Design the sequence.
């Protein structure tokens, strides 16, 4: 069976090949000087690390006064060290502990643009935490297929899925679903929502309504608003973080589809520009293709350091 680290390495292959290939081109025959540092900065920006993180890394390289004859392997190691330092504050343990003083469940609302992997993430997480009392709420009432998709994950993991009729009001459904979760003494509730683009204010208002209505059942809910990101969208993900955070107080991220992209550097840009806990990362469609985010492992795989 493939281990998580192997999956991570394979998943990040497109990103790491682009980055390490570029480093190799710059440093194989040439010395480390102002010009090559400039080229390295350009390569980092083109690899979706963002301007801020790229500048931070290059200024650290200048401060460190590295040996001018440094080779590409050493450059990769130095880069991994700097990238780990930027990513480290985003490392966080899974946030699903039930509140000890109350009998209400830990409520997690999954939000994000269309196709960011919300429903799949809920399915994968439900499998990961199946030793806990979990239920799911099918809050994507826009698409009939969305309810079905969540129901399949529910069946697979033997979990109760609270569903409404197609097209019903999502806020009302969440209200009823939370009451049922309390009755059933669930520890954790994962709520799926419809995909919404960050610039559609009407849909953002609907999300705020869902949250407000849930608070009538459990005042502290949702305990976590988790934004799912599709890594293939690259720098647009930065805009999604900024807007969703300002609209609905997102307090954690899950980054999916790192396997289908050369844009794995985007996590570094997010960490430098709008840091939030990155609770999980996804590197495939399978049930085991999601795990907690570890800064050092991520950086090592991005730079192909074994
Ligand atoms: N390669 C890859 N595919 C993924 C990953 N996560 C999700 N997918 C796929 O991406 C597609 C969209 O995933 P969904 O979970 O339906 O996304 P969603 O955010 O719920 O989409 P909407 O409900 O339409 O907004 C599905 O085909 C998933 O199997 C991942 O980490 N890697
Ligand atoms: Mg969905």
Sequence:
């Amino acid at each position: 069976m493939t281990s998580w680290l192997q999956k991570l390495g394979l998943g990040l292959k497109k990103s790491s090949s682009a980055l390490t290939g570029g480093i190799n081109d710059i440093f194989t025959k040439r010395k480390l000087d102002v010009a090559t540092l400039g080229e390295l900065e350009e390569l980092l920006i083109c690899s979706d690390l963002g301007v801020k993180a790229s500048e931070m890394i290059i200024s650290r390289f200048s401060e460190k006064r590295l040996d001018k004859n440094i080779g590409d392997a050493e450059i990769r190691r130095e880069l991994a060290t700097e990238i780990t330092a930027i990513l480290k504050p985003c490392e966080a343990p899974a946030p699903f502990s039930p509140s000890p003083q109350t009998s209400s469940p830990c409520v997690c609302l999954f939000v994000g643009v269309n196709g960011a992997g919300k429903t799949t993430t809920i399915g994968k997480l439900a499998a990961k935490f199946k030793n806990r009392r979990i239920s799911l709420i099918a809050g994507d009432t826009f698409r009939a297929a969305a309810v079905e998709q969540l129901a399949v994950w529910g069946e697979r993991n033997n979990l109760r899925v609270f569903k409404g009729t197609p097209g019903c009001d999502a806020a009302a459904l969440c209200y009823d679903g939370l009451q049922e979760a309390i009755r059933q003494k669930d520890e954790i509730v994962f709520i799926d929502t419809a995909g919404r683009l960050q610039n559609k204010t009407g849909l953002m208002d609907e999300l705020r309504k869902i949250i407000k209505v849930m608070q009538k059942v459990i005042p502290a809910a949702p305990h976590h608003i988790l934004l799912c990101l599709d890594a293939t969208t690259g720098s647009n993900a930065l805009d999604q973080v900024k807007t969703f955070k300002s609209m609905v107080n997102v307090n954690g991220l899950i980054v999916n589809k790192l396997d289908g992209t050369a844009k794995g550097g985007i996590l570094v840009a997010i960490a430098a520009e709008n840091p939030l806990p990155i609770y999980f990362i996804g590197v495939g469609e399978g049930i085991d293709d999601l795990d907690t985010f570890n800064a050092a492992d991520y950086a090592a795989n991005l730079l192909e350091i074994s």
Remarks:
- The chain has a mean pLDDT of 94.
- Residues 138 and 163 are 5 Å apart (CA to CA).
- Residues 118-119, 140, 146, 192 surround magnesium ion (ligand 2) (CB under 6 Å).
